């Protein structure tokens, strides 16, 4: 491939005409880029895997759409629409005949095609593409048919002589490696002057029968997927690309040539490696994989929306596919998903990647598939179970559900005000306690969603990881709060002394030691309650600069006259929690809705970070809190903190303020 590559793609080839000239003539008549078709395949539960006895968290609605539970609100499901949906009972033949076979004939017209299997590791990509001897997948079926087709079309007496070749490569950490020649290093991808993509030096084996294909493919494939764990990990982190090329030469004048390329690709796992806790090399690998998958998403988006620029060149994978995705090529992306609940977040992210449309449907998903449990005895006290009044209000919908249960469940539930979906007796008390405290925290922050306790069991396991992180965060904040409380106490004595001399209208004697709960902004100084109320009355007084001068402190309002002395030592800001929350919300809105350009208007966000943020959002959906920024590859916790510090006030107050 590439060495002999003097062939035209869809246009008649005239050996006397310059190739580039030919392409220029043809360029004006190029059809608009073709859309990438998207199919989703839901695999069945696999025996022996964790969660196989639980109800599924996703189900098909018809041949094009599916719905998935919304863990934020179990009264809703999310409905996704695709070109095709294959449910858990679909066979290998269904997928092949429905989505792959129809595009093969275009190869004989000199057009290119690609089939890509996308999805998290374990969701069935390799099963779909390769399959097993009992259930052969897309690759063997397509090869079988293509070889048959070329034999028929190329028989003596027909106008065209046909030949088929194969190449097999892997893209691992943005390196292109020849799987048919283990000695080859990173190969270069080139584009000829007609826009054909080629890889000089890539092995290209002629095949005339399926046995030929197997002879080359199986050892290379085995090398890649079987063996040490390290190799297995690698196989789920690299893109395996099988290229089948059909060459046609006209037997009589004008002796035209045609070439059609078919790419059959088992993509790297799309799972979020940060969430699954992978460290070190794997994290580095995932960065590279995500870059390729991320650009693939952009390319598919650009093609499907008809955008003028398609960013093929931004990754090796898309660069390789440049002449086989879009243009006159026929492409299908098969997103593989799994029904188990521990796949939930990866499933949502795979669906978001693949979806063209998504809508929220107001109907509970879990109720239909879950058996209502009779609530068992619970060790926690009634008070603990009820939580704050807000939490009780948020539990409204469950109370209605309780009514539809048996009398025993209803009476147990009525006394405990808990979701009928849970068997609390079977829950780890520590976990229950954590869920309760998280529920209370969410409720106290005004969250309108249902309590976590009403989240079904498997889903909860996925959530527990998040809960643990939150716990740590809460612990850290509590420590911080204690420190700050001590600081405020120590300050009180000084403040009351200074109050007569400085800003008497702002500094009032502190009646109680009440301190507001610090919002998780690291550098905010927690203020006494009275002070905050005072300031809230006047919008301009919400931010105060507290100046440390030696051991003395002055409190100055921003709109106060010029301070007498220049700030030379430490400054700290006092900000009302409402203002902080407002600022955080504004940042969150920008992170979720802003374009890369909007994001660049933020402090500490350059073009690269803006791209990373937009990319993360595309892959994982909206940020649920500003701290999620830390999960974006390339943004560290420290950077996230300094980003917050730099932006929160400016956005909250609608102006830049600070002691610069
Ligand atoms: P991936 O390549 O996405 O990591 P695999 O193709 O290896 O996932 O699938 C994981 C497991 O699930 C394998 O044991 C595979 O045989 C099984 N599997 C996947 N899809 C199906 C399906 N549609 N029907 C039956 N088993 C499947
Ligand atoms: Mg696989």
From TrEMBL:
<keyword id="KW-0175">Coiled coil</keyword>
<dbReference type="InterPro" id="IPR001752">
    <property type="entry name" value="Kinesin_motor_dom"/>
</dbReference>
<keyword id="KW-0493">Microtubule</keyword>
<dbReference type="GO" id="GO:0003777">
    <property type="term" value="F:microtubule motor activity"/>
</dbReference>
<dbReference type="InterPro" id="IPR003583">
    <property type="entry name" value="Hlx-hairpin-Hlx_DNA-bd_motif"/>
</dbReference>
<keyword id="KW-0597">Phosphoprotein</keyword>
<dbReference type="InterPro" id="IPR027640">
    <property type="entry name" value="Kinesin-like_fam"/>
</dbReference>
<dbReference type="GO" id="GO:0005524">
    <property type="term" value="F:ATP binding"/>
</dbReference>
<protein>
    <recommendedName>
        <fullName>Kinesin-like protein</fullName>
    </recommendedName>
</protein>
<dbReference type="InterPro" id="IPR010994">
    <property type="entry name" value="RuvA_2-like"/>
</dbReference>
<dbReference type="GO" id="GO:0006281">
    <property type="term" value="P:DNA repair"/>
</dbReference>
<dbReference type="GO" id="GO:0007018">
    <property type="term" value="P:microtubule-based movement"/>
</dbReference>
<keyword id="KW-0505">Motor protein</keyword>
<dbReference type="GO" id="GO:0008017">
    <property type="term" value="F:microtubule binding"/>
</dbReference>
<feature type="domain" description="Kinesin motor">
    <location>
        <begin position="35"/>
        <end position="360"/>
    </location>
</feature>
<comment type="function">
    <text>Kinesin family member that is involved in spindle formation and the movements of chromosomes during mitosis and meiosis. Binds to microtubules and to DNA. Plays a role in congression of laterally attached chromosomes in NDC80-depleted cells.</text>
</comment>
<dbReference type="GO" id="GO:0003677">
    <property type="term" value="F:DNA binding"/>
</dbReference>
<dbReference type="GO" id="GO:0005875">
    <property type="term" value="C:microtubule associated complex"/>
</dbReference>
<dbReference type="Pfam" id="PF00225">
    <property type="entry name" value="Kinesin"/>
</dbReference>
<keyword id="KW-1017">Isopeptide bond</keyword>
<dbReference type="GO" id="GO:0005634">
    <property type="term" value="C:nucleus"/>
</dbReference>
<feature type="region of interest" description="Disordered">
    <location>
        <begin position="386"/>
        <end position="421"/>
    </location>
</feature>
<dbReference type="GO" id="GO:0005874">
    <property type="term" value="C:microtubule"/>
</dbReference>
<comment type="similarity">
    <text>Belongs to the TRAFAC class myosin-kinesin ATPase superfamily. Kinesin family.</text>
</comment>
<feature type="coiled-coil region">
    <location>
        <begin position="467"/>
        <end position="499"/>
    </location>
</feature>
<dbReference type="InterPro" id="IPR027417">
    <property type="entry name" value="P-loop_NTPase"/>
</dbReference>
<dbReference type="InterPro" id="IPR036961">
    <property type="entry name" value="Kinesin_motor_dom_sf"/>
</dbReference>
<dbReference type="GO" id="GO:0005819">
    <property type="term" value="C:spindle"/>
</dbReference>
<keyword id="KW-0539">Nucleus</keyword>
<keyword id="KW-0206">Cytoskeleton</keyword>
<keyword id="KW-0963">Cytoplasm</keyword>
<dbReference type="GO" id="GO:0051231">
    <property type="term" value="P:spindle elongation"/>
</dbReference>
<feature type="binding site">
    <location>
        <begin position="119"/>
        <end position="126"/>
    </location>
    <ligand>
        <name>ATP</name>
    </ligand>
</feature>
<keyword id="KW-0832">Ubl conjugation</keyword>
<dbReference type="Pfam" id="PF12836">
    <property type="entry name" value="HHH_3"/>
</dbReference>
<dbReference type="GO" id="GO:0007052">
    <property type="term" value="P:mitotic spindle organization"/>
</dbReference>
<dbReference type="InterPro" id="IPR019821">
    <property type="entry name" value="Kinesin_motor_CS"/>
</dbReference>
<keyword id="KW-0547">Nucleotide-binding</keyword>
<keyword id="KW-0238">DNA-binding</keyword>
<keyword id="KW-0067">ATP-binding</keyword>
């Amino acid at each position: 491939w590439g060495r002999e590559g003097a062939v035209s793609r869809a246009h008649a080839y005239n050996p006397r005409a310059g190739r580039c000239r030919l392409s220029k003539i043809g360029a004006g008549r190029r059809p608009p880029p073709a859309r990438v078709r998207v199919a989703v395949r839901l695999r069945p539960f696999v025996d022996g895997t964790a969660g196989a006895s639980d109800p599924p968290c996703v189900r098909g609605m018809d041949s094009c759409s599916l719905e998935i539970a919304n863990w934020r609100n179990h009264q809703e499901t999310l409905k996704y629409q695709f070109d095709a949906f294959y449910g858990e009972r679909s066979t290998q033949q269904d997928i092949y005949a429905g989505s792959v076979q129809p595009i093969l004939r275009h190869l004989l017209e000199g057009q290119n095609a690609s089939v890509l299997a996308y999805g998290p590791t374990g969701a069935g990509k390799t099963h779909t593409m390769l399959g097993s001897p009992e259930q052969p997948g897309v690759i063997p079926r397509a090869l079988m048919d293509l070889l048959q087709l070329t034999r028929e079309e190329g028989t003596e007496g027909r106008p065209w002589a046909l030949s088929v070749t194969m190449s097999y490569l892997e893209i691992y950490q943005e390196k292109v490696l020849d799987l048919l020649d283990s000695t080859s290093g990173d190969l270069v991808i080139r584009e000829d002057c007609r826009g054909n993509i080629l890889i000089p030096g890539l092995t290209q084996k002629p095949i005339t029968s399926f046995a030929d294909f197997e002879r080359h493919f199986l050892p290379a494939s085995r090398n890649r997927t079987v063996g040490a764990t390290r190799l297995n990990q690698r196989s789920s982190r690299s893109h395996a690309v099988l290229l089948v090329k059909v060459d046609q030469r006209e037997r009589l004048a004008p002796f035209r040539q045609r070439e059609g390329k078919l790419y059959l690709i088992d993509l790297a796992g799309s799972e979020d490696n940060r969430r699954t806790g992978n460290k070190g090399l794997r994290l580095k690998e995932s960065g590279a994989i995500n870059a390729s998958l991320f650009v693939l998403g952009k390319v598919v988006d650009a093609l499907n929306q008809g955008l003028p620029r398609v960013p093929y060149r931004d990754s090796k994978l898309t660069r390789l596919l440049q002449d086989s995705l879009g243009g006159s090529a026929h492409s299908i992306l098969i997103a593989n998903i799994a029904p188990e609940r521990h796949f939930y977040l990866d499933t949502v992210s795979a669906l978001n990647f693949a979806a063209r449309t998504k809508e929220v449907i107001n109907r509970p998903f879990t109720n239909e598939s879950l058996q209502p449990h009779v609530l068992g005895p619970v060790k926690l006290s009634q008070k603990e179970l009820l939580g704050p009044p807000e939490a009780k209000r948020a539990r409204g919908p469950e109370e209605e559900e309780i009514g539809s249960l048996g009398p025993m469940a209803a009476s147990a539930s009525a006394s405990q005000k808990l979701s009928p979906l849970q068997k609390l007796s079977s829950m780890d008390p520590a976990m229950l306690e954590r869920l309760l405290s998280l529920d209370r925290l969410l409720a106290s922050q005004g969250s309108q969603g249902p309590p976590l306790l009403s989240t079904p069991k498997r889903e909860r396991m996925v959530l527990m990881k998040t809960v643990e992180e939150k716990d740590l965060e809460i612990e850290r904040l509590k420590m911080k709060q204690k420190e700050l409380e001590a600081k405020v106490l120590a300050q009180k004595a000084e403040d009351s002394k200074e109050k007569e001399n400085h800003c008497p209208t702002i500094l009032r004697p502190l009646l109680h030691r009440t301190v507001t709960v610090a919002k998780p902004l690291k550098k905010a100084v927690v203020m006494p309650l009275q002070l905050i109320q005072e300031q809230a009355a006047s919008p301009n007084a919400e931010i105060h600069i507290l100046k440390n001068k030696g051991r003395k402190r002055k409190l100055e309002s921003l709109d106060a006259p010029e301070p007498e002395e220049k700030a030379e030592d430490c400054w700290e800001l006092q900000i009302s929690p409402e203002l902080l929350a407002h600022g955080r919300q504004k940042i969150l809105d920008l992170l979720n809705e802003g374009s890369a350009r909007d994001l660049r208007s933020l402090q500490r966000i350059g073009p690269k970070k803006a791209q990373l943020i937009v990319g993360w959002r595309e892959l994982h959906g909206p940020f649920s809190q500003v701290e999620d920024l830390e999960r974006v590859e390339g943004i560290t916790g420290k950077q996230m903190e300094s980003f917050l510090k730099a932006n929160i006030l400016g956005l909250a107050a609608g102006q830049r303020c600070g002691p610069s």
